[in-house]
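Now for a concrete sample entry.
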Amino acid sequence: MNLLVTGSSGQLGSTLLKQLNGSDYQVKLTSRKKPEGIEHFEWVYSDLLTGEGIDEAIKDVDVIIHAATSPIKNSKIVEVSGFKEFIGKLHHIKHFIYPSIVGIDVIPFKYYQQKYEAENLLKKVPFPIPLSVPPNSIIL
């Protein structure tokens, strides 16, 4: 199974890489910044702000773990409009794992409201099995 981890240079993405290192999955990574210590993985540049590199990143993958986020800068674009464009290209994906935040629907801060908006966008995508999982959970 071919797996893509978005946001692979961030906190959640890098934690996932530790879990996936040595697994039987064919793992591809994507982010704006190349993570360090990823000799066992293929990395592809992509940017949810501009859409650059997205097509190459999603090419030939079955499962996506979406860890890309931008809580401080450009969050509306990355979390909502860029995310909407991203998921609009995922017609071939079998599973999409979107880590959620407990209580996200009641946290009154803009970033969390945007993440919740993205979750609602994801619910409308006809993947075979869309998944939203709490933080610190890994489904493989």
Notes: The two ends are 10 Å apart (CA to CA). The mean pLDDT is 87. The chain is about 30% helix and 20% strand.
